[in-house]
Amino acid sequence: MTRQTTDNLLSIIIPNHNYSQFIAETIACIADQDYAPIELIVVDDASTDNSVEVINASIADLKLQNVQVIVLEENAGKLGAINAALDVVQGSYCMILDADDYVIPGYVTRLITELDAATAQDPKIAFVYTDCNLIDAKGKYLDRGKSIAFDAEKVATLSYIPEPAVVRTKIMLETYPYDVKIRKGTKHHKWKRIVANGWKGQHIPEPLFSYRMHDNNLSGIGKKVQAEVEKGKKGHVILSGYWPTETEQR
What we know:
alpha/beta, single chain, 8 helices, 250 residues, Spore Coat Polysaccharide Biosynthesis Protein SpsA, Chain A
C-alpha cells in the first residue's frame, strides 16, 4: 500500500488487551524519550478491565500531544489491533511497543540514528532491533534476553526479532494487513512477511528495552523462563528458543 508519510515522524503503536496493570508504565516511557516528533497510537483491543480509563488518565497526566486512542469493540487479536493502527499511521518511522514492556530513555534516538546510518550503507536495511532485559510482573530483573545477528534464512523458522524494533513505515505498509487468525507467533508473522519482501534488519547487541514476563504473555515465555530462573538456570536467554513462530504453539 502506498501512502504519504511525514518525514522524521516516529509512529509508536501500542496494542493493548487487558494490561491495565502495566500500560501506564509503558506510556510513561514514551514521555521519557528525547526524540521528536512522535505520534502515539494506542489501540485497545476490546479490553474487559479498566485499560481505557488507565490509558486516558496516563495520557492526560503526562500531557502527551499527538496521540490517538482507538478502542475496538470486538477483540481482533494483536495483529488486528496493529492493522487498525496502520490504517491511520502518519510517520515515516514506526515502532510497535507491547503494552507490558518499556524502552529506556534515548532508545528512539539511538535506533533511528543506527537505522539511518545502516540504510546509508545498504538501502535494503529497513529495521533495527536490540537485546532486552527480562523482568517479572513487578519489574524485577531476571536475566538478559538475547537476540541474534540478522539472518534472512533463519527468519523463516525462528522468531528472534523483538517487537520494539524501529522500522521504516513504508515497509510495514507493504506487508499489512496482517493475518488476524494468528494469535501466537504474531511478531514472527510480521517479520517473516517483511523479510520475504527482500528487506533486511540490523541487530544492536545491547539490552535497550525491558520485556516483561508474566503468566499472560501471549508467547508463553513468561512461565518458562521464570521457572528456569527459579531453578537456578540463569544465563543469557536466547529468545528464539522461547518465542513461537507463526505456525507453532509452544
